[in-house]
Batch of 4 targets.
Target 1
Amino acid sequence: MRVEGLSVPYTISTDNTLSLVLLLCSLLSIMIVMRSRNVLSLRIRSLFIQTTNLSNYRRTKNNEREELFLSALSVFSLSLIGYSAELHYFGNALAINHYLVMMSYAGIFIAYLLMKRFLYMISIPMYSNIQQWRAWRHLFSFTTALQGLWFLPIAIINIYLGLGAPTTLILAIIGVAITFFVRIYNAWSIFFKKKKLYVPFFLYLCTLEAVPLALLAGTLTGVAQTLKGT
């Protein structure tokens, strides 16, 4: 029964707009997986096989469109996970509109991906050829897209089945960690393995992977603390 004067706390599960968006995203994701399951299987397998054959990293125009959608889905899902964690730890005391909070998290993740791409563009071509650089761009896009397939089910289960913020965050961190190590593994295979370039590999690991990830974690923590104080 509704009590006059008392507002019902906002939850994503009761938001019809977001529920519809999640439903459409789920259906489109299933369609992509079903239509491209053979290609996806082969490309995922190639991520764990060290090779100098750069043709393993090629993609078609159709793959590019699918990866763009799944990458956007990754950002969207992470923004929902971030907002759910915000509600869990700080309650409904936030003075900022819930959509603005989600957009803030989405903006952070978009900025992180753009920063990564920019850092790759200015550094990787210095120790690679055009074929290696193209292969790396394809790999980066593909692994970002795969994150969308990982984060969306986690976000949905958390929102509608009450997975819980701690478990949800752990699963999200696992997804980020897997992507982190897969990219390192493939960077060694594409750029450094043939010539045994250990020092450049270490510099790549620190400046292009570890530091941006640490900045992302610090930014998310800072935003969460700022929202807590509003």
Target 2
Amino acid sequence: MLGIVMTTTAMCLCTFWSVVLALDLLKYGNRAAHRELLVWCVTSTVLYAGHFVFFNRYTSYLPFFDSVYSICNLAVYPLYLYYLLVLTKGRACLSFKLYCFGVPLLVGMVMVLLYCNMSHSDILSFIDIYLYQNSYEGLAGKALILAVVHSVAKVLFAVSVFLTLIWGTVIIKRYDETIASFYSDVEDRSLRTLKTILVLLFFTSLVSLVVNFLGKYYFARSSLLLLVPFTFFAILLFCICRVGSELKYSYVDMQKDMSADAESQGSNSEMSGTDRAVNDDRLRSALRHLMREEKIFLKPDLRITDLTSQLGTNRRYLSELFNRDLGLSFSDYVNQRRIEYAKKLMEDNPDMSLYEVMTRSGYLSKSSFYRNMKRFGSST
């Protein structure tokens, strides 16, 4: 009974979030790569349907579900990485798509062909000897080949886990750096919460690798053995789907904002070292005037293009100047100045409400104000 409950819970969670994401797609379209997240969620649902059949020993359905499970198992981590790529880059390259969809389907097709060409007695022997005992003893012919294909699939799965963790961390970091170089307010635009998901994904991946190494058969011996991996997976599934469903902003939206502001940018042609130094001095002087005299940092949702239009330069050049001279992103620089201003307001006006301090300092969001006060309040 415990095994049925545990194997059903993860499948039901995936089904629930699949419905939620499908309804969101129908209402709002593909915002924040929800379509790709839905594909991942449906794949996970089928994956856990395979777990349900295996761990509850519905052996008559295993030839079909074993093949489908293997496809989904090989696809689930690459599909999550595919979701992250669409979310942060707008698309994935063709070679990755071929890996993401082609490799799992190829392995699954090989398994289907082997199952279709095996006798009923050979299938039962394979299920009993390899799937539930993880042994090659007594296997021969197509049954032995099928066992080897399963072993190869385990290696491919381990590779996909490491690829997703490493590449996923890199692309989220680069995306957040780009966001911070363009917007002053990154609260609802950065993927900070997905970094937490990746940490959780790391620990869950360790569980996945252990389960993959030991084999499903090891956990089929007792319902209690299923408790740890399925608890980890259920928590991860809920967090991924919850966080992903709440995201409203992605690379596509950022590109729209950048394109809309592109016409206001100045240009900097190739300059000699002397000309560049003179230009840098001019920009620093003009930037100090904008910040100290005009206090442009108090403008809510300030963007770097609001500065470039007045400074006669372009976004990339000004962003490099921030990083090179101050060691800060545009967002960090602006928010540091805002917090300095907010602290001065509170010192000069002790009776002023915190809400008024927040709005007069350029913030529209309490969470953004509190987060930046915590970051820069003690250092300014």
Target 3
Amino acid sequence: MRFVRSDSVTIGGKRVPVRKITIAQWRELFSTINVLPQLLISVLSAPQSERAGYFVVAVRESLEDVTRITALLTGLEQEWIEQNGALDELATFLLETAKVNNFAELLKNVRGVLGPLGINPAKPDAGSQ
């Protein structure tokens, strides 16, 4: 299946561009994100039969991070996003941003760099998916 990416998405009725994340934005993202990484890990490591419940909790607990990330990457005010944006719009924006920034290839390359250094990054357990 080939994913077609979009150059812009709509959030709260406003069209916002989907762009590459600059080094400066990466720095800001790392200082902005609080709970999202741990929540993602908890969802992915949960037993398959319990993932839906973990996902609901993760969404509830990560809304602050998600709106902050979206504000940083779009230039929209976080409060405006909270008052006007819908969760599906933010999910679409983040998905399109991941595609534009080729996150899958980035993770693969990071694993490739860490492997020769003797660092074995955790891989998802194929049996639990």
Target 4
Amino acid sequence: MKTTNTTIIILVITSLFVSCTKDIDNWYNSYDDIYGNNSSNTPGNMDGSTGNLSDFNVAIDSTSLAEDETIPSDDKDYVENFKTTKNIEIKYSNSSVSVNGDVAGVSIQTNGADVTVTSTTEKVNYILSGSTTDGSFKMAESEDNKKFKLTLDGVSINNSDGPAINIQVGKRCYVVANNGTYNSFSDGTAYAESEEDQKGTFFSEGELLFSGKGHIKVNANAKAGIVSDDYIMIRPNTNIYVKATAGNGIKANDGIVSLSSYSGSSMGSGGFPSGGGWGF
């Protein structure tokens, strides 16, 4: 039985080492240490060498692909079945941030470009845009946590001492990368001390449900890349690339469901989670 499970895991991981669209080539080029300078390390031109994964250059196939998808009308994991009625726009600008939208039951605190949201209100869509080299987005736990939508509309967040996205709410988070947008998240090499779980650059206590036809890049330097203490679902046409030098690229306690063949993960230390769960 153990052999069968291992085989399934390997097949899932193998299907994920694909990316998308030719436009993303320049976006990936910032990872020179992944692509390397050896032009022979490209798909279809392998030399059959063996060794440790971290010793190889990994070439990303950015051929444009398209996937069809059927939306189940009764599945709560699909954002199409979650209708938001309230929008809050959060725009980062270097060391500051602006907030547009006043929703009853939602409190937003800012400190420089660090944003902390506390909400007891349903059907809220938080729209992130802009860029900061020292900021974050945090959804704090409240007395009555609600699931919510997090729309990525061309946002770039680097947090030098913690997660760029820190969701302390154990509810569904619908992460939607808007069509054609490029969104990036990164952290530093060490996190500030905290009594809360902070397990990766893009972290959530609840489900992370990725969709949309945009691009998401995560650069994890201290811990894992994308982490859920519940489960993660990645929908077709959603382009995700994770580089994690100190942990798993993508990790979840209860499972990783990839309905897409576009996602990719590269790990410096690599391996499966030593504390249980699923990851690669």
